[in-house]
TrEMBL record:
Signal sequence bounds: none
Name the record gives this protein: tRNA-uridine aminocarboxypropyltransferase
Organism phylogeny: Bacteria, Pseudomonadati, Pseudomonadota, Gammaproteobacteria, Pseudomonadales
Composition bias, Low complexity: 199-213
Residues covered by the DTW domain: 2-187
Length: 213
């Protein structure tokens, strides 16, 4: 029999993270497009990010046909937070000061690339990337490359760059609790044997082209 889950954070009721999730306002709109394969994952950081942001939204699917019209009539500039040839450093947009919509694909790198493949309007968007050399706190997934971040870490870093250093750090509280809870559940010995020493994360908007959530 499956355990009862919180309808908001989808965690088992005994491990609900809602009390740790802040509610923050942002001038930047954050639209997270999550591959269905990530939606039921125990380490679903995209949902935590969306819950924390008044101006955030999470959509789950492989195709998003509504996006073409939405992007065409958007009142603010829209950019894809994803590495690639010609991706603009996000810090440059921060100096511009204009309202922005960040579209963030969520999934493994393979799944995120699939989202772009199935949604040409995403692939055609101007891309922005985080600074290189970032370090993840995600210790439960092997990173595909140095500097890979979880989705929530990438969003926090992006918003801090755009709207002020440290303003969105509170979003990481449930993320840290999620990681610590998973480590406690598996036991310190198992964790050290399988994970210690491996930075872990599913998405890295600062990584070279060809990477993904």
């Amino acid at each position: 029999m499956s355990r009862s889950r919180c309808p908001r954070c989808t965690r088992p009721l005994g491990h609900c993270l809602c009390a740790l999730v802040p509610r923050l306002s942002s001038r930047t709109r954050v639209l997270i497009l999550q591959h269905p394969g990530e939606a039921s994952h125990a380490l679903n950081t995209a949902r935590l990010a969306a819950l924390a942001l008044d101006n955030g939204e999470l959509r789950v699917g492989e195709t998003f046909p509504e996006l073409e019209a939405e992007l065409a009539h958007a009142s603010r500039r829209s950019c894809l937070l994803f590495p690639g040839t010609g991706a603009m450093p996000l810090a440059e947009l921060a100096r511009d000061g204009a309202p922005l919509q960040l579209v963030v694909p969520d999934g493994t790198w393979r799944k995120a690339r699939r989202l772009l493949h199935l949604n040409p309007q995403l692939a055609a968007m101007p891309r922005v990337a985080l600074p290189e050399g970032l370090s993840s706190r995600y210790r439960l997934r092997k990173a595909p490359m140095v500097g890979a971040l979880s989705t929530i870490e990438a969003i926090v870093c992006a918003l801090n760059l755009l709207e002020g250093a440290g303003r969105f750090d509170a979003m990481l509280r449930p993320f840290e609790a999620l990681i610590e809870g998973q480590i406690a559940a598996m036991g310190e010995t198992v964790y050290r044997r399988n994970h210690e020493g491996d930075p872990a994360a599913p998405i890295s908007p600062s990584a070279p082209a060809g990477s993904s959530a």
